[in-house]
Amino acid sequence: MTASAPGIPELAADVVLWSAEESERGDRPLLVLLHGYGADERDLFALVPYLPAGFVVAAPRAPLAPPWPAPGYSWYPIEGLQSRDARSTTDAASALIAWLDLVAGDASAVGLLGFSQGAAVAIQALRLEPERFAFVVNLSGYATPGTLPRDPELVERKPPVFWGRGTRDDVIPAALVAHTTDWLPEHAELSGRVYPGLTHSVSEAELDDVRAFLEKQLEAPEAPDLPPPTPIG
Length: 233
Hints:
By secondary structure, the chain is of the alpha/beta class. The chain has one domain: Rossmann fold. The protein is 30% helix and 17% strand. The chain has a seven-stranded mixed beta sheet, sandwiched between helices. α3 (117-128) links the parallel β4 (110-115) and β5 (133-139). α2 crosses α3 (117-128). It starts with 15 loop residues before the first strand and ends in a 15-residue tail after the last helix.
């Protein structure tokens, strides 16, 4: 079992939303939704009706509260000196993995779908434990700069990753977008799209593409070891 990360509290077991009761989950694939900065577990859980029904969906709440008066919760600080340290993203991903150790149960596969900060945590978790995650959906997020010990495994494995972002997204710094553009194709089987006019948000067109990507993952019983999906767009 993974120990909780230093500086990041444990994820609370009583503030997670599930699409199915525990008795109904069995070995169905698990899709974990990671909300963005200043939101909570209800944010992405609203997407459940638009996602393939084959997944059990879990939406945990991030463990940190941003400084007042910012609303909601965050996975790692983005203010002060900690925001400049990639270790914060790694610690947040470690806390997520520790939570999964407790809740993933008999899930046949685990995939991550994150928005913005949640997407950064999803990619970092994939880098920490490449064999654990079948795929990642990165919505308006980024890959954290720096190297991690198991990055070479990703280069060999190339798990499926969907990356969607908008041309008018002015929240994620251009340098992080540029880094992610260079980093992801080397470490993942990348598909996705850049959406004209989209701001730091999710559009209906993007949701359609995400659903197609997720349906492709359901077709693969052991997604990490099978051919990746055909790129969208």
